[in-house]
Amino acid sequence: MEGRAFMSIRTRLFVMLLLFIILPYFLFVIFIYENSKSSIEERDLARSQEELNESRADLEQYAEEMVRLPYSLFNMPEVQQVLENGMLEETTEHVRAFENSVETYAATRPDIRQLRFYFQEDQQALTVYQSNVSAPKPAPDYLEGAPFREMNESKTAYMLETPHVLVNEDKVAIVPESDNTIVLPIQHRITDVLSGEFLGFLTTDIEVTSFSRLLEAVTREAGTQVILVNGNGEIIYSKDSKQIGKNMDESQMAAGGENIVLREELGEPLADWQLIKVTSKDELFRDARETAWTNVVLGIGVVLLGTVLVLVVSRVFTKPIITLSEQVRSIEGGQMNVRLKTERKDEIGHLAAHMQEMLNRIDTHIAREYKLELEVRESQLRMLKSQVNPHFLFNALQSIGAVALRSGDREVYKLLVTLSKMMRYALQADQLVPVRDELDYINSYITLQKERFGADLPITIQVEKNVQEYRIPSMLLQPLVENYFKHSYETMRDKSSFILKGTVKDGVIIFNAASYGAAVSAEEIRLLQEGVAGGTGLQNIAERLHLHHGDKAAFQLGNLDGKGFGVTICIPAEEQGGQKA
């Protein structure tokens, strides 16, 4: 089981419970929830759009009615007469008839909170509050206030203002100070129909709450907010009275995608107005969310029942297997005196009996075969090490180097230091070392050879950087360079060269060494391959590869078209000798 993650049967049962029951169930709950949300949102959008269309039509009709309603008042003879002549010039009888008509007009429309007349003829103002008529008051500066001046200059027939709290402009006693009703003022400019003469103004304050009955169809749902906005972005109607009269905040309306926002453009006389419905997704999906949570609770119940079932099965069926597994792991730790026999007569009992027999046979063969093999390998490694490592006197080299340094001969000292490094490295001939250390050893060897031959040497080392981190047996590549100097460079110096390349491909470390120089026949290559001919260097490489990696490593020789010979070494990267440092 070495190299594999151990997973008990109990763990496997839990994993199966998770993969085949729990995970599919909760994925199904999530799928149903998301699908329900999409379906609910589509239905709500369609219904809300239809309701907005109906409310838009009702609002337009109501606004048209409220805009045209005063014209019926203006056409009354007693009202028209007072508008033309003024309040001060009319008789008491005519004034009383005017007041009766106005009171009747106001009483028929409970949504009208206040009326305010201005008579241009005598510059008087009159207030009507809930069917009560005040005494006229002088208003010489009436036309200087907004929006009357703009309407008078532009000859605008009517205008809808921004809603605000009811204002007692004329300070009359019939309007209580405690009245904080929010009203929508509609201004009418009164002119003579025939002559076009300007007669005065009528301000109609409509209670904003009157819009609520028109918007009932789109406001009855929980979590829904309906806002009526004019062309300037000012809120005309909202359930939250604090918002009325303020500019609409688009960012708060969107609320980071948590709301569904629908808009409906209104026509005359509410041109450029918008009816906006904001629905909270949290409220919209409440039922779907509650259903999902119910399914989650049921799923948790399934999980608990499944866990109990796994524990029972594990207790009854897997406990003997776990016990046997623990005994086997103790054997892996080196405890060979474990007794695996059991009283069970089923498959587990037979398995324990056979494993006990196998353990006894292994214990018998270890001393005779395994230990003997270890001894043989150690003897072979010691023999190969004695062939590769020269018996130089390391301490003597240090003494000679010190003398050279005192004598001022730094070149000799450098060569001795290089040789010392080579000797220190050579002492670890049966160890695994990074490829970069082997290349450092080769460079030191080449440095000594340069000093020996006194010329630039035609040697090229091309080993990829990622290869240099892997471990190989020490002194594996240096004999290739040494063999080049012995058989090629010394005999054909001007026509010889050496190239060493290293790469990793498909999990295999590959070294290619090409020694150009004296020609080598096919028969010589065969004898070298079989170890019959050639020096100890190449034979040593082949034998050490076999000792470390067995048949998983490869050592091949080849003829370079009569111009020398090449060596190819292949080492599996996943094996111990190919692991990274």
From TrEMBL:
Could you tell me which PROSITE patterns the record lists for this protein? HAMP
- Classification via Pfam families: HAMP, His_kinase
Q: How does it sit in the membrane?
A: Multi-pass membrane protein
Task: Give yes or no: UniProt keyword Cell membrane.
Answer: yes
Q: Which residues cross the membrane?
A: 12-33, 292-313
Q: Please indicate if the UniProt record lists Ribonucleoprotein as a keyword.
A: no
SUPFAM superfamilies associated with the record: ATPase domain of HSP90 chaperone/DNA topoisomerase II/histidine kinase, HAMP domain-like
User: What are the HAMP domain coordinates in residue numbering?
Assistant: 315-367
In terms of domain of life, where is this protein from? Bacteria
The cellular location(s) given in this protein's UniProt record come to: Cell membrane
Give the UniProt keywords, A-Z: Cell membrane, Membrane, Phosphoprotein, Transferase, Transmembrane, Transmembrane helix
Question: Which Gene3D superfamilies did the record assign?
Answer: 6.10.340.10, Histidine kinase-like ATPase, C-terminal domain (3.30.565.10), PAS domain (3.30.450.20)
Question: Which PANTHER family does UniProt cross-reference here?
Answer: SENSOR HISTIDINE KINASE YPDA (PTHR34220:SF7)
The name this protein carries in UniProt is HAMP domain-containing protein
User: What species is this protein from?
Assistant: Terribacillus saccharophilus
